[in-house]
Design a protein that fits this description.
mainly alpha, 126 residues
Length: 126
């Protein structure tokens, strides 16, 4: 069963790609960016049924990880309560885990991470 538009939107977002906007070419995106988008769209439209099932599991897991980041950021005002102490790095740690799984999802799909995600390495523009 093919991905719904909502699933494709989530896949693009989790893989670090911006809004696609109805499939129209993006004039300011440049050749390399359009090639990446095209490769991703081709992948999304040609996965086998079993690969789509794995991708849908990724979507569920990634949505849970993303929600955990938001949940962890809701109690940043408490440093300690009784014996419980807040992990000051919890949001950072959860974001790193979330981004790790986003990159794993890209690897599974066989596409490079999008500009919003990157490959996790330092990039210097000169």
């Amino acid at each position: 069963m093919a991905f719904t538009d909502a699933e494709k939107t989530e896949i693009r977002r989790f893989c670090g790609y911006g809004a696609y906007g109805g499939g129209q070419p993006l004039p300011a995106s440049g050749y390399r960016f359009a090639t990446r988008y095209g490769a991703m769209e081709y992948r999304l439209n040609t996965l086998s049924a079993s690969e789509e099932a794995v991708a849908r599991r990724y979507l569920t897991d990634l949505a849970g990880l993303e929600s955990a980041i938001v949940g962890a950021s809701s109690n940043l005002d408490t440093d300690s309560a009784a014996v419980w102490k807040r992990n000051p790095n919890e949001v950072r740690d959860r974001r790193q885990l979330f981004n790790l799984w986003r990159r794993e999802f890209c690897r599974f799909l066989g596409i490079p991470p999008g500009p919003g995600l990157g490959d996790g390495s330092l990039c210097m523009v000169v």
